[in-house]
Every structure is written in C-alpha cells, then in structure tokens.
Design a protein that fits this description.
457 residues, alpha/beta, Thiol Ester Dehydrase, Chain A, Rossmann fold, six-stranded antiparallel beta sheet, 40% helix, elongated
C-alpha cells in the first residue's frame, strides 16, 4: 500500500516537526535518560543530524570519560534523527502527537560501535546520509515498503574521532504494523505494541483511586503488568489524569454486573488482554467457566503470566485465539465443547469498540447476541462519543485529553451518541447505559464522553 507523500516544504517541516529545540524536548520527554544526560540536538537538515552528549556527572565512568553505552545511545538517536528528516511531514510514533494512519515507526535493528579513543570532552555525534541512499529511502518508504537501512554515525571528542558506529534502522508506516493477515506474518513491532498496551492497562487496574466510591481492586493486576506495565501506567497517568479513574470505574462496573447475573455459568472475556478478572472471580464462582479470547500473541502472553501465579484456576478457564477483524467469533466460541449458549452468560467487550469501525462493531455485537440464548445473559461494553473521534468540540478539557491520546498513539476511530440504537440493531432487546461521569457523580466533560452499556437479549 503506497503512502501519500505530504506536500510539505522542508522549511515548514523544519518549523513544525524537525527543528532541534522541538525534537530535543520531545525526545527528552519520551526518553528520560536523554534528559538526565542533558543530551541535545544541535543541527538538522535533510539527511543530516548533529547532536551533543555533554561530559558531566551523569555520563562519565570511573575514569572521568564517557560511558561507552551512552556513546552508543547518543549514536542511536543521532542516526534515527537523520533518518527521520527524510520522512518529510510524517510524525514519529511515540514522539509526535499522531494517529496510526499517518505516522511512522522507527526502530534500531542492530548496531556495531567501534571505540577509537577515550572520550574526554563533550561528544559531538554526526550522521550525514549519502544523497543517493537518502533518495532510495524516501522512495521506498513512500511506496509503502519497509525500510531497512544502515547509517554511519561518527562521534568526536576534543576534535578527535572517539567512536564510529554502523546503525541499522527499520522504518515503516505505523498502520502497516496491524496486518490483516493472521499469524505468523505479524511483525515483532506489532507484537510489542500489543503486549505493551495490555501491560499498561493492567498497570492502571493495579492502582488505587482517591475516590471513595472506587473500591474494587484486582489483586493480580499489578503482577500481570510487571515493571514494563507499571512504568507505562505511570507515564499514562501523567499525560491523561482522568484515565486512571476511567479504567477503574469500568472495572468496578463490570465486577458489579458479574455479581448481579442470576445463576451465572459462563463469562466471556472478548479481547482479554491481561485482564485477570477470571482468576479474581474463580474462587467465589466455582461453577463458572471463563472463556478468554484474544489474538494468538496475546493469549501466549496470558499463558506465560498466569502460569507464574500461585493458583491459576486452569480448570475453570478456556483460552481461545481469534482475530476479531477476520474471524467469526460465533464459531470460535460457540462451537467449543465447553461453551453452552443456553445457560446464563456474561460477555465482556472492554475497551475495544473505539478501535473498530462501525461495521466491524456491528458484526461483533451480532456474534455476541447469537451466543446469548438465555434471557438472563448479558453483554457489557463501553463507548466514547463521536466528538472524541471527530474532535468537534470546543471544550478545552476534552481537547487536552485527545492531545494526550494522540501523544500515546492511541487515537479512536469509532464513537456513538446512541449505544442503545447500535446494540438493538444487533438484536439486543434491553440496553442500560450510564456515563463514567454519572457513575462517579462527577461533571467532568471528559468522563461524560465515556459510557458503559449492559445489553440483554
């Protein structure tokens, strides 16, 4: 799939996306070690970057010279910046505010650094890409192809060549990291992003809230998040302060629903991620079977994490793999030997609808409806309002929230003002909806744009 090259001049791109002051600030925010070292970009032009790694307390070793690992770190971002200048007008995922459909993902695939002499002064890193190689990179990227390129970075200290580095980079339109084809064609970057998102939400679920009403807690969420998830959750909360309570509110609302289904026999976690709800409720619901369904890569991660728990209640849990965009959940779940559509069942579709199109959502909700043949069965799902997707709002608090979502690369593609109409068109008869703001008795407009629905046959 070819990518449209934006009609942006280098002068405009320099001003809005690539100038040294902006990129130094953005990179220091995203990579705190660069801020701690006082690393900075001194100069950029198309195919060129010059950086500075000061010799200071944070960067020296026991001999008072630069630590070798930090020279490599500086070389990495020097070469990466030079490469980024060639993708004119394209925001960088994880650095700029962006959406998946218009951003580029850059990754260091390998490096070979040769240290020439001790670095006893401020270190200048320089990467200058050959014009012929630069043109090949641009043509390949904007034709929609993956770019794998090796760049030379030279590092100078006190006028001497302190290190030479061969840095191999991978670049690709971010949208291509979510492939339509099933495993095994999914990329390493896609797998990383998938697991990172699940760990981040698990990290949020493991936190507490200052609100007295939010008392529900999952004792296994923090373990599932691991150090990676806790770091991401802290970063998330610093950018989107409302999101912590939004996630905890929906988690509590789901727990309340589970407790209120008479004679509950089955719970389906559709898009299970690292939701440990099945293990949390298994001991108090010994007659309930939990069906956990997600992409193969995510189910493998669930398997790895839950095996480490003291009790994983494996006899009550069924893990299933599926790609929600291409496969029929009615068959995958409904034809499993342990699933019975005629008994009271709760299906949980949490934090997903906003990442699927309206057509995809309707197809999924119809599948869920077919799996619920008992009148006491119910579906839990959540929605955002359309203005969260279209940005047609003048409320600065909502706009600030959306800017934070963009900075995380988590922009939404679907929202609805009428969950009942959508769910009723999928075959549900009774729909109850409440906003997060109403549940918490909080008029915050961001909370009011997010709602939970319980739908019954």
């Amino acid at each position: 799939m070819a990518m449209q090259q934006l009609e942006v001049s280098w002068e405009q791109d320099y001003r809005d996306r690539m100038n040294p002051e902006l990129m130094t600030s953005l990179l220091r925010t995203s990579i705190p070690v660069l801020d701690r070292c006082d690393w900075q970009i001194k100069s950029v032009r198309e195919g060129f970057c010059e950086t500075l790694l000061p010799l200071n307390k944070e960067t020296t070793n026991q001999h008072g010279t630069h630590q070798a690992a930090l020279i490599s770190l500086s070389a990495d971002y020097t070469g990466g910046m030079a490469l980024a200048t060639l993708l004119r007008g394209v925001p960088l995922a994880g650095i700029h505010a962006c959406r998946n459909d218009v951003s580029a993902s850059l990754w260091l695939a390998g490096m070979n650094v040769r240290y020439k002499c001790p670095s006893t002064g401020h270190l200048t890193g320089i990467c200058e890409i050959d014009p012929v190689q630069a043109e090949e990179v641009k043509q390949r990227y904007f034709r929609g192809n993956r770019v794998l390129v090796t760049l030379q970075v030279r590092c100078y200290s006190n006028g001497e060549l302190a290190a030479e580095a061969e840095m191999k980079y991978f670049a690709q339109p971010t949208i291509q990291l979510t492939p339509a084809a099933p495993q095994p064609s999914r990329s390493t970057l896609f797998n990383h992003k998938l697991k990172a998102s699940a760990r981040m939400i698990a990290g949020v679920r493991g936190k507490s809230s200052a609100r007295a009403k939010l008392r529900s807690h999952c004792p296994h969420a923090g373990f599932a998040a691991g150090p990676h998830g806790h770091l991401l959750a802290d970063h998330l909360n610093s950018i989107l302060p409302q999101l912590n309570d939004m996630v905890l509110t929906r988690s509590q609302h789901i727990d309340e629903m589970i407790q209120q289904v008479p004679g509950l026999r089955q719970v389906v976690l559709a898009g299970a991620g690292l939701d440990m709800r099945s293990i949390k409720h298994a001991s108090s619901h010994p007659h309930v079977t939990f069906f956990e369904i997600d992409l193969p890569e995510m189910i493998a991660e669930r398997e790895r994490v839950t095996k480490l728990l003291q009790e994983d209640y494996r006899h009550q849990r069924v893990m299933l793999t599926a790609d929600f965009k291409t496969q029929d959940l009615t068959k995958i779940i409904g034809e499993h030997e342990r699933f019975d559509p005629t008994v009271p069942t709760a299906i949980i579709f949490e934090g997903c609808s906003m990442y699927f199109s309206e057509v995809e959502n309707l197809r999924l909700y119809k599948s869920f409806r077919e799996l619920m043949q008992h009148p006491l069965s119910c579906l839990w799902t959540d929605f955002v309002e359309p203005k969260v997707v279209t940005r047609r709002t003048n409320d600065q608090r909502i706009l600030s929230f959306l800017e934070g979502m963009d900075s995380l690369g988590e922009s939404f593609i679907f929202g609805t003002d009428n969950p009942a109409e959508l769910l009723e068109s999928a075959g549900f008869g009774i729909v109850e909806t409440i906003s997060a703001g109403s549940y918490l008795d909080d008029p915050d407009p961001v909370l009011e744009t997010y709602s939970f629905s319980i739908a019954r046959p």
